[in-house]
Amino acid sequence: MGYVLSAVARVLEQPTAWGAAPEMALLAGPLWAAVLLGLLLGWAWRPRWAAGLVAAPAPAAAAQPPFATLGFWKAQLPARLRAPLGSAAAVRHGEEEEEDEVSVRGGRSSEAGSEELAVGKRDLANLWRLVEGRDGGPAWIKMMDRSLPTMTYQAWRRDAQTGPPQYQSSSIFEDATPEEVRDFFGDDEFRVSNKWDDMLVYHKTLEECQTTGTMKVHWVRKFPFFCSDREYIIARRIWKLGGAYYCVTKGIPCSSIPRRNKPRRVDLYYSSWCIRAVESRRGNGGSTACEVLLFHHEDMGIPYEIAKLGIRQGMWGCVKRIEPGLRAYQQARAAGEPVSRSALMAQINTKVGDSFVRSLESDSDGSETVEAEEKPARNRVARFLVLGGAVALACTLDQGLLTKALIFGVARKFVGQRKAL
Q1: What does the pLDDT read at residue 287?
Q2: How sure is the predictor about 283, in pLDDT bands with cuts at 50, 70 and 90?
């Protein structure tokens, strides 16, 4: 250390740069020598996996370098980390088998290949774990239980560690088959014409695969007055597992449609169903009812507390319009009205065998559902006043998104402090 300080002092004493150059060389020489010595010692004692990264492969193994194999990398990991990789590899192997089966049945177009990458069997595995309560996520908190004469509805919510709040709902429709409900939810044309989903104002099919039924769709949805409309680029696909239909719908990137300020693009979007026959609540002993398990979350670009408040207040108003829409759809099908293009695509499903389920049952953790605790009415009123005032103030001021975000942030902090009291 003393050598370094004295060398620096000698450099600073030189009146010119040419005079300081020899002193700087004397100072840098030992440092470079130390760096080279460290490299030589590190190379001499390098681990085995590091040698495989730079060693030239033999001619016989040129087609498959040692560091490119999954087994090689798994061997470098501890034993407790190998099991999850093994289960993921099993899912990937099943996905490859499914794609091979699709290609044998009739080939694939370029659009089909891109869609199968966007919505594949891994998405089916994630939805299956959600349906079975084995995704290992936080506990679900019950938030709603309503009913109509021919419909029963329950809803739950949970807050993920990162990302928007997640919702689960169960809708049971009397006197309906899974096939009718599947076509009903997949029929975009009927959504708009019947207006049971009055938020959907525009839809267009961008790509479709006649072999797998995968679709790439452009949606524009209408939001309340204080928010601009939202734009979605979604991919959806339906599998049939046993007697149930697993419908995966999620947002995907799309470079062919440029982004605009209005409507605002929603990138994070997930809305998937499991549609299956269940026993009627009338107690007649027959499976004449149909249950729809929905799992939904999206990042709408709104503060999460505001979004949760709006969803909770408007949820039942939107849900109760589904039941008369389904009955109108049943009547239209019974009257022989032509089936729309999107409904025909919903009828193209990929069948999955029981072996896929058995490969998932070994590595799934349980997730519980709990009842929401009733909060004091005074705290609830205070939260509504604070959040409602923030919305009104943000809509009144025309100072751009930064001012509105600041107002929402202050309101959210205030509500969070009241919840902690």
Answers
A1: 82
A2: confident
Domains of the chain, each with CATH number or no CATH: 121-197+238-256+267-355 (3.30.530)
Whether residue 153 has pLDDT greater than 70: yes
Say if residues 220 and 263 touch (Cβ distance below 8 Å): yes
Cα distances (Å, whole numbers) of residue 16 to 19, 24, 25 = 5, 12, 15
Q: Where are the beta strands (DSSP E) in 227-311?
A: 230-241, 244-251, 264-265, 269-278, 289-298
Q: Which amino acid would we find at residue 131?
A: V
pLDDT category, 80, cuts 50, 70, 90?
very low
> What is the helix (H) or strand (E) element at residue 14, kind and residue range?
none
Residues with Cβ within 8 Å of residue 247, at least 6 apart in sequence? 182, 185, 186, 236, 237, 238, 272, 273, 274, 275
Q: Where are the alpha helices (DSSP H) in 107-243?
A: 110-118, 121-132, 178-186, 188-194
First vs last C-alpha separation in the chain: 56
Choice among 80-84, 143-147, 247-251, 278-282 with the minimum mean pLDDT: 80-84
The pairing of strands 230-241 and 264-265 is: parallel
> In percent, how much of the chain has pLDDT > 70?
60
